[in-house]
Amino acid sequence: MSEVKLTVNGREVSREVEDRTLLVTFLREHLGLTGTHVGCDTSQCGACTVHVDGHAVKSCTVLAAQVSGASVTTIEGLAQGGTLHPMQEAFRTHHGLQCGFCTPGMIMMAVDIVERHGALDEETIRKELEGNICRCTGYHNIVKAIKAASEEMDAPAMAAE
Known about the structure:
Elements: E1 2-8, E2 11-17, H1 23-30, E3 49-52, E4 55-58, E5 71-73, H2 86-93, H3 103-117, H4 122-128, H5 140-160
């Protein structure tokens, strides 16, 4: 057993868990944060993507004990109060979802992509999303949503230049 101490969505948490507990399991079963989905358990689909210390990580391939001491942000931690994160709002506005299963992981990956690249073109978005699978949408509206959000999220940085 290991004691795992994390800051999750801005809240400090501590739990005693088996050493083999995956981060996705820790989030879902120990903290009740079920927005992070379990899709494939092999890091193929990206439905379990969260941010660990500001970087996108597929939480089905990392042990909770490995990230003890880190800061984790899940889909539940993106919105501020009643205001959706710009990426969440863009997915809603541009219909970047269908069944919704992949959506939390897509949004978390998309935020990471924008934070690394700023405003994005379609080619970059499609290349960067290769590790996230959607079986419903054909990606067109997902790409539109990410492009729109990237322009909005990058606007303050562009204005500062």
